[in-house]
Amino acid sequence: MPMNPIDVKIINQSNNELPSYATLGSSGMDIRAFLAQPLVLASMERSLVPTGLFVEIPLGYEIQIRPRSGLAIKQGITCLNTPGTIDADYRGEIKVILINLSAEPQTIMPGDRIAQMILQKVELIQWVEVNSLEETSRGSGGFGSTGKE
């Protein structure tokens, strides 16, 4: 059953195509580097990569920027601050923090797909201050407390 898309206004100042879904079942749209020349990232080097995209996200939503799995496995390049959040009231250019985790220099070419963008509904919290929380079988166990299998 096809989903009903949400209208999101976009300005594209790059020479790249608009972000789009690769397949019918894709969650994220690939976004591309808007570069005047290739960008070489040395091992462990990070860079803020422009996309030339500006969006007007409806209230109640955010856009998340996530790594592309192919870029990560093939070149060792991933996004820092993942997932990156673009708030509904942000109107600046979308930029992606990339890092090269491989041992070799890696090149990002103008127009390369560098990350994926996902529209996500956001629920607001209204705090209810209490003196105790409902008990669970897990309790306060965390950081590996459920064991390794």
Write up this protein:
- This protein has 149 residues and is mostly beta strands.
- The protein contains one helix and twelve strands; from the N terminus they run βββββββαβββββ.
- The protein has a five-stranded antiparallel β-sheet, with no helix packed on it.
- The protein starts with 8 loop residues before the first strand and ends in a 28-residue tail after the last strand.
- The mean pLDDT is 93.
What's this entry about, in short?
This protein is mainly beta. The protein is 5% helix and 35% strand.
Individual helix count: 1
Radius of gyration, in Å, reads 19 Å
CATH topology grouping: Deoxyuridine 5'-Triphosphate Nucleotidohydrolase, Chain A
Q: Kindly state the number of beta strands.
A: 12
Strand content: 25-35%
Largest sheet: 5 strands, antiparallel
Tell me the span between the first and last alpha carbons.
37 Å
